[in-house]
């Protein structure tokens, strides 16, 4: 049996976030942090600069090509939002080279982007300030599975197989067979990377949002987004997906089954373009994702 800490300790030797991201986080954490220092750190990395400008000028933000420099991006979006985007780009770059046994990577990243887009759309529809951060949290919410399939591939595969055969929740099978589940592993990785506390709290509580502390609603949104991503991957109808969502979640988010279809359609609209933006190498290698 394995602990989440053990798996994360094994993975971080292979998955270290880029220095430029760490410098941006230092600026964000520092009382004396400045937009000029963040701009300088990003601008020193040409590939990151290109990716970031492409993202901020995409339909994702709606500035329509009007942001031409990193300094303007930082000024308009703010350090926190730039931090989140650099984090998303850094993680996609760091992990897209992984080819774990038993895991279909194009399918995995498609599901992750779908989670992110769905979570952001739910946050926006609730009028949440900073809903864009939910995209990044949603994108990272399944990363525990990537860690498990990289470090204990046979046990991760066995848990998935048993859960499917028994029609059992996957996280329960993982705990029984591997000793920990993907939400625990993901939260542990967020803590190890010293990300803002909300990342670990939301990702760790995504299967049981009521345990999310100050982030119960955000955890419920990610939970809801996960159900949508699963429906997408299993070619399940929106009605069938809605039927599998706990009444407590519907009540907590004050949403109706029709909302699931709306959120799903919105996410599907942006899915292909965001896969291309965050995972260009993966898309190129496979022709499609």
TrEMBL record:
Q: Which domain of life is it from?
A: Bacteria
Q: Cite the HDOD domain residue spans from the record.
A: 14-209
Concerning InterPro entries, the annotation shows: HDOD, RNase_Y/CdgJ
Query: Mind telling me which SUPFAM superfamilies this protein's record contains?
Result: HD-domain/PDEase-like
The record's section on PANTHER family has: PTHR33525, RIBONUCLEASE Y
UniProt protein name:
HDOD domain-containing protein
